Amino acid sequence: MLLGNDIIKEAVQKTKQHLKAKEMEKAVEVSEKLPALRLAKLLRNFSSEHIYNFLQHLPKERILDVINGFAEEYAAELLELMPEEERLEYLAKMDSDEVADILQQYPKEKQEEILEDLSQSKREEVERLASYSEDTVGAFLEKDYLSVKSGSSIENVLAEIKKLADIIDHRSYVYIVNENNKLLGVCSFRELLFADRKAKIDSVMTENIYTAHIEDPAHDAAQRIRARKLKLLPIVDETERLIGVLSMETAGELLSNEIAEDILALSGVSGEESFFTRSRVSIKMRLPWMVGNIFLNLGAVAVISNFENTIAQVAILAAFLPMITDMGGNVGIQALSVSIRSLALGEVQIRDIKRAVVKEIKIGLVNGLVLGVVFAAVAYFLQRNLILGFVAGIALGINVLVAGVVGGSMPFIIKKLGKDPALMTGPFLTTITDITGVSIYLGLSTIFLFRLLV
């Protein structure tokens, strides 16, 4: 007897097999056991044309759910394969925020052409969402929420919720507004169930509400949801009128996307670049970083050049240089990633830099000691030279300590200066750890040169 997970795994394998064999009807039949998001994930392994042929065999509502499971770039690519009428039909059924995201993937002329074919209300909503800056909460607001007028009876509110159950997904909270739609309070669905049916909703609502204004940074609003463990955050305009909500799911995506972009930035890759970005654009995004790194690495080259005589006399020293610099870089990136992630999630503030430094010193002392001893033993085993092992171990241990402290503290310093830590710390960290490791290693080698020559 198959359990739930086993059924899903089996359905995934069979669907994949039928898709590869281009047995679309069989693939559709088996894929009925898969959630739309899981099916979308599976389909991303195939070409757009292959997926489009498969989608033609699905019910239209199922097609819409699957398309919504794709990244905006991929969804736009699939919609582009459809006849115009079919494409407009799906866009008309999508939520306005999803349409706004997909339209951004098309040229300006194509966007205007699609907007003209949407209903007036849908077009106005999409244009309004597109008008907000991408980093403001307004660009992510949703209209999927429940609101009732002040003075409504709880009995009527529950009846309204029941009526809208199939339309509104976010039913955890009910927002209370006045005749001008100004937000007055909020009440959870749970509280309504246990309240007196004849009472007015005003008697059970909470008036102190956490809100976000339309122009607030989206990142800050997402952090507020996470910190307060909210399922929805109401969004209001300058007159405190309720105009939408930010959901917990969207907040989670915002924070996770920001962390992913920061990690990409450490390697000199823009968060705006994706698998679907054109090669010409990707080259334009990546090349400046690589050119900049050439000049930053000249610092390490200059240090090595100063010790040319030492290396010439003891050539084996050069063999251990990559390991010392690479280890420092790896340790630094670990500390850097933790600090950037913590700053992005709001777990720490700029004032916590002292704690970050103290923590990395403790970690660096232990890790540096252990790694230094191991590396010293390896160097001695390979060359049977106790002094070489000592020098290599000391250099590696100190570099690990320095790399951890620099990687853990630099994001705080750069954030304090008002810059993006992810964009600036990666190249600087690599340069610092390279110079530190090389200087200590070759400096000690020069001091003990006469012992190394024995």
CATH architecture classification name of the largest domain: Orthogonal Bundle
- Please tell me how large the radius of gyration is: 29 Å
Provide the domain count: 3
Low confidence ranges? none
Question: Which class of secondary structure composition applies to the elements?
Answer: mainly alpha
Subunit structure: Homodimer.
Family: Belongs to the SLC41A transporter family.
Keywords: CBS domain, Cell membrane, Coiled coil, Magnesium, Membrane, Metal-binding, Transmembrane, Transmembrane helix, Transport
Protein name: Magnesium transporter MgtE
Describe this structure as you would to a colleague:
The structure is a single chain. With 454 residues, the chain is mainly alpha-helical. It has three domains: 4-134, MgtE N-terminal fold; 146-254, Roll (CBS-domain); 297-452, Orthogonal Bundle (Tetracycline Repressor, domain 2), CATH 1.10.357. 66% of the residues lie in helices and 6% in strands. It has a three-stranded mixed β-sheet with strand order 1-2-3. A three-stranded mixed β-sheet has the order 4-5-6. Helix 11 links the parallel strand 1 (146-149) and strand 2 (173-177). The termini are far apart. The model has no long low-confidence stretch (mean pLDDT 79).
